[in-house]
Amino acid sequence: MLVGILNILGSLGIFLYGMRVMSDGLQKAAGEKLQQILNWMTSNRFVAVLTGFLITALIQSSSATTVMVVSFVNAALLNLTQAIGVIMGANIGTTVTTWIVSYFGFKFKITAIALPVIGLGLPFMFAKTRRKRDFGEILIGFGLLFLGLMFLKEAVPDIQHNPEILEFLKNYTNLGFLSFLIFLIVGTVLTVVIQSSSAALAITVTMAFKGWIDYPTAAAIVLGENIGTTITAYLASMGTSVNARRAARAHLLFNIFGVIWMAIVFKYFTNFVLKIAPWDPNVQANLPLNLSLFHTLFNITNTLIFIGFINQLASVVTKLVKPSRSDKLTQKYSLKYVSTSVQDTGELNLYNAQKEIIKMADITQEMFEIFLEIFYNPNKKMGDKIDKIKQLEEYTDQMQEEISKYLVQCSYDALNESSRNNINYMLRIVHELESVADSCFKLALLTQKKYDKKIKLHPKADQEIRDYSNLIKEFIEFYKLHLDTRLEERDLELAFKLEQKINESRNKLKKAARYRLQEGANVRSELLYIDLLKNFEHIGDNALNIAQAQKNIT
Fold first, then answer.
1. Residue 340 lies in a domain
2. How far is CA 260 from CA 68, 190, 286, 298, 452, in A?
3. Do 317 and 453 share a domain, yes or no?
4. Residue 353: which of 343, 341, 364, 345 has the closest Cα?
5. Nearest 10 degrees: CA dihedral of 425, 431, 434, 439?
């Protein structure tokens, strides 16, 4: 029992890790060209639905399609409304499997290509160019994702090849609407357990073909399987960006809304399917075809109903899934330039840029505080803090690029000479803030190295670092305070005094470190200590450069 549970958890781990690797590879490898292609493929809701249909029809797995959609959203390659359109198309595409099962009694297994894809991606991981390594990462992530799906199916109880264990269900087929609800739940649970709506559909068709359940009962189970298949995308969205989680939630709500309206017209809809069937629907051998037609018409009708409400559905899931602080930092930063015919637009955009710079300064302060927390808590596990400061550092890199591009665009506006000069100084501030973030990250890594290598600093090091860091904190607070106001001459003098104190402390502490080395102190310990001091000093230099730029802003 325990081994079985661990196998399921291990399979789930491979699946989730594969999704994350593929998403990371996409994010690093995707340039503007890929973004444009994806935008074209999902340029409007109808094309997005067609895209989802074609992908799912080709790979024979709506779960795989929705997982990839979640990955694309997590990598910021698709927005939420585009993703919802693709998911709708995937629901239609999965009906192709029902037809294949009905006619041929088998299903193409996409997981069969998992290991070959991983093997194909392996050589790229050793390539010299980064682009090829990123491509290899995408392939390996893709293969691991489907390998995880395969292991999940093998790890759960073997229901697919033993459908007779569900024969007892035929005793609950004559309870009216209660039967509908019961078999709706059965279809949902069945798909969740098997981790594949296609496999669940195959079981349902088999039971119907053998006469264990009638057509309406099988149709209710199929509706439940439509809900159950959303669990795969939901699992894939765990630990991803807020928009990726919203895409998975939209998948769930879309299928639930579809089942709700179908419950109202279920009797009439199932009869309608039998009337339009081009074969004899009363023949038992044609019952699987009846189910295939029902499944197809339901998903097409459901998509036609809700395709006009994609924006509303996106709004609902946006309200349901709120972003956390970490979400705001892990998602891709974007600052869009606004260009209108309104007078003074350029000045308004400069104001907007100034607010973003203040936000960037807040992040650098937070990063320094996280470093101090890591440094002063050697006995606590701080892996999550290291991850957070890394996320913040990557986010500031994005901020530097986006704000800089934004300011350059602002320079094309009809601005006065003063505003044009301000743009140059703002660009300088953004550059210096990004350097502060880099130094904070390096300080955190040095501290992690200190703990991992069990390096002990000299007895007075903690107090010296505390005193030195207080000077840095004071300087960070100083430039933050003056980011939205002009720096006066007396304030600049204070900045020079702070920088002078930092340099004096650095000289004093470095001199003591060199003396300890000469006296035979631990070399690794003293070199790490000097590296800490060096990064402190860099932050002080950056802070002074920020203050000088602030002095020139009018």
1. no
2. 27, 19, 27, 12, 56
3. no
4. 345
5. -110
Question: Which residue type, as a one-letter code, is found at position 446?
Answer: L
pLDDT at 346: 54
Q: What pLDDT shows up at residue 25?
A: 67
**Is 205 strand, coil or helix?**
helix
Residue 34 included in any domain: yes
Residues 349 and 462 in one domain: yes
If asked whether residues 318 and 351 sit together in one domain, one would say: no
* One domain, residues 274 and 358: no
Which distant-in-sequence residues (6+ apart) come within 8 Å of 553 by Cβ?
422, 425, 426, 486, 487
Q: List Cβ neighbours of 408 (8 Å cut-off, separation of 6 or more).
A: 423, 427
For residue 345, the model assigns a pLDDT of: 47
pLDDT at 348: 55
Contact 302, 258 (CB under 8 A): yes
Question: In the listed set 301, 327, 353, which residue is the last one of a domain according to the structure?
Answer: 327
- CATH number of the domain where residue 478 is located: 1.20.58.220
pTM for this structure? 0.47
**For residue 170, is it within any domain?**
yes
CA–CA gap between residue 60 and residue 97 (Å, rounded): 6
Task: For residue 165, give the DSSP letter.
Answer: G
Q: Does the CA dihedral 479-482-487-489 come out positive or negative?
A: negative
Count CB-CB contacts under 10 A for residue 116: 11
334 falls within a domain:
no
Nearest 10 degrees: CA dihedral of 28, 30, 31, 34?
Answer: 180
Residue 285 DSSP code: G
Over the chain (554 residues), the average pLDDT of each successive run of 10 is 71 68 59 47 70 66 66 65 80 72 50 78 81 81 72 54 53 67 79 66 69 77 81 67 76 84 83 79 72 85 84 80 60 52 49 80 90 82 81 88 84 67 86 91 88 84 86 87 77 85 86 86 87 88 87 76
Based on the structure, what is the number of domains in the chain? 2
User: Distance between CA 469 and CA 376 in Å, rounded?
Assistant: 12
Same domain, 245 and 282: yes
Which range marks the domain in which residue 547 is found? 345-552
The whole-number pLDDT of residue 437 equals 92
Q: What is the DSSP string of 455-476?
A: PPPPTTHHHHHHHHHHHHHHHH
Look up residue 135 and give its two tokens. Answer: 């491509």
CA distance 89 to 86: 5
Question: Are 197 and 306 in the same domain?
Answer: yes
Residues 383 and 498 occupy one common structural domain: yes
Q: Residue 262 gets which letter from DSSP?
A: H
What value, to the nearest 5°, has the Cα angle with vertex 303 and ends 300 and 304?
85
Q: What is the C-alpha to C-alpha distance for residues 23 and 331, in angstroms, rounded to an integer? A: 12
Closest C-alpha to 222, from 83, 131, 101: 101
Asked whether residue 453 falls in the same domain as residue 482, the answer is yes
At 380, phi and psi to the nearest 5?
A: -105, 150
